[in-house]
Specification:
With 366 residues, this protein is mostly beta strands. Helices cover 10% and strands 42% of the residues. It folds into three domains: 10-118, no CATH class; 144-232, Beta Barrel (OB fold (Dihydrolipoamide Acetyltransferase, E2P)), CATH 2.40.50; 239-361, OB fold (Dihydrolipoamide Acetyltransferase, E2P), CATH 2.40.50. It has helices at residues 25-31, 34-47, 239-249, 254-258, and strands at residues 3-4, 9-13, 20-24, 56-65, 72-86, 95-108, 147-158, 161-168, 175-180, 199-206, 221-231, 263-264, 268-270, 278-284, 289-293, 296-303, 311-312, 328-335, 339-342, 345-361. Strands 12, 13, 14, 15, 16, 17, 18, 19 and 20 form a nine-stranded mixed β-sheet that branches. A five-stranded mixed beta barrel has the order 7-8-9-11-10. Strands 1-6-5-4 form a four-stranded mixed β-sheet. Strand 19 and strand 20 form a beta hairpin.
Length: 366
């Protein structure tokens, strides 16, 4: 049965017989079991899927029986629950497979609003809530505000949101960062995606190398204030400039990016490894082969020299032709957030799978 934590009652009116009925949590529990509540929660999740992870509170409408005429009366409850995630497929985004710790918090007034989507019910992802921001000391002078301009070079789907890589452009010494404004595990994605190949300015809350996320991602994670975000009207750097800077930092093999003794089974890096979490591979278009994912034919992988077949999760993956022109090519690689496995396939340490985040070609070559 669903647990109850509130007290008191609300008055509801039966339209058929005119009875005014006092409804308490105990009355709801007598008529409505936890499994039925779970179905209602699943209904609003299907309407707009909940971002991966977390615990939420939702207002849902259910029906109970009128004590006089036995017709149904619609009442509104505030309910909390933890999603039970199905993570059985490494190649697919996790999905909600039910709920646990379902608790009726209170019976709400009859005019209370009802949630259409669990996305709005997250207790830790409200834009106005700053409690999720870690205390990070940037300098001895707290009034100093640091900012950064990032040219977005990669955008990929992540937990029903987006993850981005941005190039901090500085001719000859540029760096790639991964901007994020939430640090909770499985909540590092952006609900509103940034535009690819656009430049944004952010105020910095925490710099890469700090411990607000685990290695290896902390080497490139950059905690920013998303409320300070400004998209620049015109890019400071051209696409040719970006290609040149990425080419300057590119490596000739996957091992050169992540380290020869770091990669496991040509697929992943262990959580906690002190290695880059992003990098750029330089090759020719003919060195790459686009293949379909054997686990999900609608998705793609990329065959890379050295025995690698990482998933191609770029937002524009389907726009890349099967046969790339044999021009100078840059492959932007990144590591997925740590994956713990499921059931008997529990990974300790967690695995950070290698992903292809973007493929760029020199359009002036050939």
């Amino acid at each position: 049965m669903a647990m109850a934590s509130g007290s008191g009652f609300q008055l509801y009116h039966c339209e058929k017989c005119g009875n005014d009925q006092r409804v308490s949590i105990e009355d709801v529990i007598d008529q409505y079991n936890e499994w039925e509540l779970d179905l209602r929660l699943q209904d609003i999740n299907d309407a707009c899927p909940l971002a991966y992870g977390g615990f939420f509170v939702a207002s849902v409408k259910i029906d109970i029986e009128c004590e006089t005429c036995h017709e149904e009366i619609g009442i509104v409850l505030k309910v909390s629950a933890s999603p039970d995630w199905d993570e059985s497929r490494e190649d697919c985004d996790p999905r909600i497979d039910g709920f646990q710790n379902t608790e009726i918090l209170e019976v709400l007034p009859s005019d209370a609003s009802v949630d259409d989507s669990l996305m709005s019910c997250l207790t830790f992802a409200e834009d106005d809530d700053e409690d999720y921001l870690p205390e990070i000391e940037l300098s001895e002078e707290p009034t100093v505000v640091y900012s950064v301009t990032l040219h977005i070079i990669a955008k990929t789907r992540m937990n029903r949101g987006s993850c981005h890589l941005g190039l901090c452009f500085n001719s000859g010494s540029s760096r790639i960062f991964r901007p994020l404004y939430r640090t909770q595990e499985s909540q590092c994605c952006w609900n509103q995606p940034l535009e690819l190949d656009k430049e944004y300015n952010f105020n910095i809350l925490g710099t890469s190398g700090e411990s607000f996320t685990p290695l290896p991602h902390s080497n490139e994670d950059l905690l920013v204030d998303h409320r300070s975000m400004q998209i620049l009207d015109s890019n400071v750097s051209s696409s040719d400039d970006v290609f040149t800077e990425l080419q300057n930092m590119a490596k000739l093999s996957v091992e050169d990016i992540f380290g020869p003794n770091t990669i496991r089974q040509n697929k992943y890096v262990d959580e906690g490894s002190d290695c880059p979490s992003v990098g750029v591979l330089s090759c020719m278009g003919s060195n790459l082969e686009m293949i379909r994912d054997p686990f999900n034919y609608r998705k793609r992988r990329v065959k890379i020299p050295g025995g690698y077949e990482p998933r191609f999760t770029a937002s524009d993956a389907e726009n890349i032709p099967e046969d790339l022109p044999d021009n100078p090519t840059l492959v932007v690689l990144g590591l997925a957030r740590p994956f713990a496995g499921t059931g008997q396939n529990h990974f300790d340490p967690k695995r950070c799978y290698i992903l292809v985040l973007r493929i760029l070609q020199n359009t002036l070559a050939g």
